[in-house]
Amino acid sequence: MVTHFVVHEPGDSVGVVVVEGVKKGEKLNGWIMDGDSSVEMTTLDNIPIGHKIALKDLAEGDTVIKYGTDIGKVVKPIKRGEHLHVHNVKTKRW
């Protein structure tokens, strides 16, 4: 079984795509490192390697958690399986 994305901690709201060529509608396998478990989902977007995928629905203003850490806030609603990047998540620093 191919691992398409990696999640660092069970409470994270995003995973990181670790393969090239993830296409919209594709069924993906994810590995949750802390606890060595897995998760499956269908992607709603094409997602480049190294970019994030939402593990749950996120509303505008929600905090994005990666590595168990706050990495920014949602500026546009995001559905489970969608691509997270600068178009829908911004840093809280400025």
How would you portray this structure in words?
GO terms for molecular function: lyase activity. With 94 residues, the protein is mainly β. It has a single domain, classed as Roll (Archaeosine Trna-guanine Transglycosylase, Chain: A, domain 4). It has strands at residues 5-7, 14-17, 27-32, 37-42, 52-54, 63-66, 69-74, 83-84, 89-90. The protein has a six-stranded mixed sheet, with no helix packed on it. Strands 6-7-9 form a three-stranded antiparallel sheet, with no helix packed on it. The mean pLDDT is 96.
Number of structural units classed as domains: 1
What CATH calls the topology is: Archaeosine Trna-guanine Transglycosylase, Chain: A, domain 4
The ordered H/E elements are EEEEEEEEE
What class would the helix/strand composition place it in? Answer: mainly beta
Strand element count:
9
Question: Which strands sit side by side, in order, in the main sheet?
Answer: 4-3-1-2-5-8
What are the defining features of this structure?
94 residues; mainly beta; Archaeosine Trna-guanine Transglycosylase, Chain: A, domain 4; 6-stranded mixed beta sheet; 3-stranded antiparallel beta sheet; 9 strands; globular; (2R)-sulfolactate sulfo-lyase subunit alpha; lyase activity; lyase
